[in-house]
Design brief:
The protein has eight helices and twelve strands. It is an alpha+beta fold. The protein has two domains: 133 residues, N-terminal domain of MutM-like DNA repair proteins; 134 residues, Helicase, Ruva Protein, domain 3, CATH 1.10.8. Strands 1-6-7-5 form a four-stranded antiparallel β-sheet. A four-stranded antiparallel β-sheet has the order 2-3-4-8, covered by helices on one side. A two-stranded parallel ribbon has the order 9-10. The longest helix is centred in the C-terminal third of the chain and has 23 residues. The radius of gyration is 20 Å and the shape is globular. The two termini are 30 Å apart. It binds a DNA duplex through α7.
Amino acid sequence: MEAVRRTLRPLVEGQGIRCVHVFHPIATKPQSAPELVRKVHGRAIRAVERKGKYLWLALDNGGLVTLHFKLDGQLLWFANGRELLKRANADVAHAGVHVDVAFELDKGVLGFADRRHFGRVQYWENEASCPGLAVLGVDALSKEFTADKLGELLSLSKRPLKEFLLDQSRIAGIGNIYSCESLWHARLNPLRRAYTLSQGQARRLHKAIVSVLRRALECCLHPAPDFRDPEWWFQGLEKIIRAYDREGKPCRRCGEVIRRISQGGRSTYFCGRCQR
DNA sequence: CCTGCTACCTGATGGC
DNA sequence: TGCCATCAGGTAGCAG
């Protein structure tokens, strides 16, 4: 999401929103689509911000449009309204592309698409009024996320490390892939209870989280996303992945077979020998 | 407060 | 081929 924010910023910052289209109203649920259109029409985009996995357009009236991609959401970019209306939800043979919501700006059109319809585009009067945003803990890429802060959070939780890392209300921005990867790098077993870590282990985990996220961000920015291509997806992430989705393959550190278990309804991949 | 379960959707993949 | 089960980068809402 940070790579998306950085790429999107120069495209939209400072631009006026001339027209809002909601092609699939499910994308604004439980908010009403006409209300989103009414509130956002004619406003200007002051900034593009992010916390955890929430991305938002900060508007000139203090309001915001939050974009949450869930599992499959993505941004699209069209040259103008004519191109948008020609291609949005049209036949693939006619360069059609699935679009849920679109914002016609002074120069270009920003689209939001999620065929699975988990993702959301919503309007809020201020940051505090968006519940999902309000409950987020410290952002994992922020300077407030220090080793001491992580140590303190760990000491307050009895949950297994893997579930602890996925809890956005403690640390925001770590998902299933990066939690597996961080624990692999820190050589910590995902089933370990958070509060049982020593200070040294907490520092190791902090270092692992930060380095995994920084390297993933570098990866996702080179090359940067091209929102004009609806097929676009992050390139080169595979080359930094060490444990995720490697069930049955050898651990890249010790050679033991990577295991897959279920924790909190999600898959966890780890090495049972070198992660302790 | 905390934890665990289910729902929300669509599409890809693999076994038979 | 078809059919069915399972899986997917996330969160919200609910019961206990």
